[in-house]
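1st attempt posting a full record on here, be nice pls
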Amino acid sequence: MTDNLKHALKILIIEECDKDWEAHDISDDAPLLSERFDLDSLDVLQICMAIKQQYGVRIEGSAAARRALKSINTLAQTIVQARD
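the predicted structure (as tokens):
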């Protein structure tokens, strides 16, 4: 997994969820679905749709979304594995 992909995912999340954060505010292993980031179900849906549009990877269902959005690391891993 490249650092470029992880950085791009951080930017995607910030933009899709209209958050006032910087990419360096999100560590690669921080739990994304935690109180710290305050992402709701609409945010998760928007992130999943953006991942599909930008990377061609479908994340369908709430269980799959929870697994993929565990952290930036797991999201990047999900994309890399789906594209292999």
